[in-house]
Design a protein that fits this description.
Cofactor: pyridoxal 5'-phosphate
GO biological process, one term: glycine biosynthetic process, by transamination of glyoxylate
Number of helices: 14
Bound molecules: pyridoxal-5'-phosphate
Helix content: 40-55%
Number of strands: 14
Order of helices and strands: EHHEHEHEHEEEHEHEEHHHHEHEEEHH
EC number: 2.6.1.44
Strand content: 5-15%
Enzyme class: transferase
Shape: globular
CATH superfamily of the largest domain: Type I PLP-dependent aspartate aminotransferase-like (Major domain)
Family: Belongs to the class-V pyridoxal-phosphate-dependent aminotransferase family.
Largest sheet: 7 strands, mixed
Number of domains: 2
Strand order of the largest sheet: 2-10-9-8-5-3-4
Length: 384
């Protein structure tokens, strides 16, 4: 499977399993963060980030900054929100709520468009909300990792541009970038924030984000200063531009090892057309979802068109407790995650199928996980 020491396969919605080459890049010998070799590697990584977002717009700007996915929320709040600015949050669960809480810290006046657990807000109600009030930003959680609900971005962004062209379209892509299609320029998105440890398949520790020229202009034309030092995009922008132009530059020390690992992960992700990567994630996701339904189980995301392709949230039978099943799976060499949506938390488990576990044909872990799930349920007395 890999040259790593034997371990249970980590099939949670991030961190995910690592490819050997990515992990080996973490062991890179020490180098100066302003030395020519690292500057070249960081610059190349930023350029590959543009490709990951299928973007060629020179006014758009990638940022790779030490931190977890949550730092992306702070970057949006600190830079795009001034006290009292209105934000429309499309609520699909735990992570949409977290994003909203973060925006409130920076003074946002948040309005939610809600949906029942396991579904997503629909275009007509979102449009009605946009017509009722001027919103500076609209946020959408592309895949809400608490429910496995996938939100549609293409028609949504078109509708927002027609209904409220001033509104910036902000995407939490932490659990979608590199496993769900994102065409940043074509769809007219204004910011996507993500992290290294989910479908990108790099160890945790990097916040990766992408901002449109329009979003950058919005930061530059603020009336009040950005109330964060580390998350201020204007502090990072010249640094990112210099690195991409292969010029050394310093604001705060990047992690050379993590950037090296991201460089390797992105090279792998971009070694074949992205469309093939997305199609492979869909194919494996379809297989997992079919196995789940063959076991007589339901998914949290009810409608097929709302189901993510990098994870599956599975309702357990009434007779089976997650706290009993998860340790059995772990003994069988498979790590799944428990529930985190507060309304249904004990009733479901989450199976992440992203990155190398999906893309590497020599890795048996997805099939093993399906078999282990079946065996574990049987052991707990659930008969298919
Ligand atoms: C994981 C996740 C986050 C938070 O990322 P951290 O790296 O844990 O800070 C935010 N949004 C979504 C959709 C996520 O899946």
């Amino acid at each position: 499977m890999s040259s790593q020491p034997p371990h249970a396969a980590v099939l949670i919605p991030g961190p995910i399993e690592f490819d050997d080459a990515v992990l080996q890049s973490m062991g890179h010998y020490s180098e100066s963060h302003v030395g020519p070799a690292f500057v070249a590697a960081f610059g190349e990584t930023l350029t590959m980030t543009r490709q990951l977002f299928q973007s060629t717009d020179p006014s758009a700007q990638p940022f790779i900054v030490s931190g977890s996915g949550t730092l992306g929320w702070d970057m949006i709040g600190a830079n795009l929100i001034e006290k009292g600015d209105s934000a429309l949050v499309l609520n699909t669960g735990y992570f949409s709520n977290g994003f909203a809480d973060c925006l409130k810290v920076y003074g946002a006046d948040v309005t939610f468009v809600n949906a029942p657990v396991g579904s997503r807000p629909q275009l007509p109600e979102i449009q009605a909300a946009l017509k009722g009030k001027n919103y500076k930003i609209i946020t959408v959680t592309h895949v809400d990792t608490s429910t496995g609900v996938l939100s549609e971005l293409k028609n949504l962004s078109r509708m927002v541009q027609e209904t409220s062209p001033e509104t910036l379209i902000i995407v939490d892509g932490v659990c979608s970038v590199a496993c769900e299609e994102i065409a940043f320029d074509e769809w007219g998105l204004d910011a996507v924030v993500t992290a290294s440890q989910k479908a990108i398949g790099c160890p945790a520790g990097l916040s990766i984000s992408y901002f449109s020229g329009k979003a950058i202009e919005t930061v530059k034309s603020r009336k009040t200063p950005v109330a964060s030092y580390f998350a201020n995009l204007l502090n990072w922008m010249p640094i990112m531009q210099n690195y991409e132009n292969k010029k050394p530059s310093y604001f705060a020390t990047p992690s050379p090892q993590l950037v090296r690992a991201l460089n390797t992960a992105l090279k792998q992700a971009l070694s074949t057309p992205l469309s093939e990567r997305f199609a492979k994630h869909k194919e494996v996701s379809d297989k997992v979802k079919e196995a789940v339904s063959d076991l007589g189980l339901k998914q949290v995301a009810g409608n097929v068109e709302d189901q993510a392709h990098g994870m599956t949230a599975i309702y357990l039978p009434d007779s089976v407790k997650a706290t009993e099943l998860l340790p059995i799976l772990s003994k069988a060499g498979v790590v799944f995650a428990g529930g985190i949506h507060k309304e249904i938390q004990p009733k479901y488990i989450r199976f992440g199928h992203m990155g190398v576990s999906v893309m590497d044909p020599n890795r048996p872990e997805i099939d093993n996980a399906i078999a282990a799930l079946k065996a574990g349920l049987t052991q707990l007395g659930y008969l298919v």
